[in-house]
Amino acid sequence: MGIVKINLHKISASRNLDSKGGQIKINNNVSITDVQDMDFSVDGKKGLRFNFLFNCNYEPGLGKAEVEGQVMYVDEEKKVSELKSTWDKGKQIPFDVMEQIVNAALHKGHIQAIKISEDVNLPSPLPLPKINRQASEEATAKAGKK
Questions:
Q1: 10-113-15 Cα angle (round to 5)
Q2: Whether CATH 3.10.420 fits 2-145
Q3: Strand partners, 25
Q4: pLDDT tens across 123-132, in order?
């Protein structure tokens, strides 16, 4: 089955008003902080909650944005039990499942970070598309030659 839902429970952003201007470096990171069993009432299926922390740091010391939440994952009982056991033993998850979970957390985290970064006057953590007049004029000229 896979991911069934993503819940958020903390969203925050802060900006350091005393920081100096200049070149800004934005570091985005997501980490899985815990894996918990989830009650799920479908025969043969079992679920896990993957708790995550997405953070976006603006260097040097300009500010940060953080998003905490849970990715709800459902699959066959046997597979989910193996995932939980692997996590409990060494805080690891097989790549195929981890890829799904981390991508979902990154997606949700980036969307929220874009929203809240604007509220505290921080740059977007992802570059937003822009119209380039020169490139647009060149594309129009090429299209006119055909």
A1: 90
A2: yes
A3: 59
A4: 888 877 777 7
